[in-house]
């Protein structure tokens, strides 16, 4: 069942892998939160390669496509016959090896912080200090909804990126303590992304009377 944790669920240790660690210097929390919120609102589309590492150390590569608000697609490589798609309201995981489909609301996932650019991060976000002044890290959790999990997103200040930030990845922990880290590379912003990108083929056998 570990592969079902996937992009939805990682311990703070994984942040060191992405080049961040505790430091004495503190970012200005309010300014940093605003900068991240501005980035999420300005990032209309993004494509990137991703590398996913789960708590057992298994590594899976793939291609990420994002279109705000709420649309996301994780297309895994040949190592996993798997697809995860967000349509703005829900995340759907399609496992073509076993012809299984699972679906749950985006707001119930740690990814809700990434896929809802209008969410008020000042209420749920906490800046995590880093050694690199060009790196911002924010931990997002809803204290009233611990079942939604925790996500820690990592950004680098890059001229020309939306609002001057580039999303480099995240680590997350879901309500079942499933941990996963996602590292991004070759990010491209503002590229054309058709809505059909987020369609998927249902592998389940068709049954009479089912629509």
Structure explained in plain terms:
- This protein has helices at 14-17, 29-42, 112-115, 121-124, and strands at 45-54, 59-67, 71-76, 82-87, 90-95, 100-105, 125-127, 135-141, 150-157, 165-173, 179-189.
- The protein is globular.
- The chain has an eleven-stranded antiparallel beta sheet with strand order 6-5-4-3-2-1-11-10-9-8-7.
- It starts with 13 loop residues before the first helix and ends in a 22-residue tail after the last strand.
- It has one domain: outer membrane lipoprotein receptor (LolB), chain A, CATH 2.50.20.10.
- 12% of the residues lie in helices and 38% in strands.
- It is mainly β.
- Residues 1-6 and 8-27 have low confidence and may be disordered.
Strand content: 35-45%
Q: Cα distance, first to last residue?
A: 28 Å
The level-1 CATH class: Mainly Beta
Based on the structure given, which CATH architecture is correct? Clam
Counted up, domains total 1
- Contiguous low-pLDDT stretches (5 residues minimum) are 1-6, 8-27
If strands are numbered along the chain, what order do they take across the biggest sheet?
Answer: 6-5-4-3-2-1-11-10-9-8-7
The biggest beta sheet is recorded as: 11 strands, antiparallel
Helix amount? 10-25%
CATH H level, superfamily name: Lipoprotein localisation LolA/LolB/LppX
Number of helices: 4
CA-based gyration radius: 17 Å
Elements, N to C (H/E): HHEEEEEEHHEEEEE
């Amino acid at each position: 069942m570990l592969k079902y944790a996937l992009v939805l669920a990682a311990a703070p240790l994984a942040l060191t892998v992405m080049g961040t660690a505790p430091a004495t210097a503190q970012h200005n929390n309010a300014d940093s939160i605003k900068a991240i919120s501005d980035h999420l609102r300005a990032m209309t589309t993004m494509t990137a390669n991703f590398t996913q590492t789960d708590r057992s150390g298994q590594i899976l590569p793939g291609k990420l496509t994002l279109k705000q608000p709420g649309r996301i697609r994780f297309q895994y490589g040949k190592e996993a016959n798997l697809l995860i798609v967000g349509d703005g309201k829900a995340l759907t995981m399609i496992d073509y090896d076993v012809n299984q489909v699972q679906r749950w609301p985006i707001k119930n996932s740690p990814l809700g912080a990434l896929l809802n650019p209008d969410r008020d991060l000042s209420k749920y976000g906490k800046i995590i200090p880093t050694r690199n002044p060009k790196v911002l890290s924010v931990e997002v959790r809803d204290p009233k909804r611990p079942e939604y999990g925790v996500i820690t997103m990592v950004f680098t200040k890059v001229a020309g990126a939306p609002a001057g930030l580039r999303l480099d990845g995240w680590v997350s922990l879901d309500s079942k303590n499933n941990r996963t880290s996602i590292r991004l590379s070759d990010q491209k912003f503002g590229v054309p992304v058709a809505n059909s990108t987020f369609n998927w083929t249902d592998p389940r056998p068709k049954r009479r009377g089912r629509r």
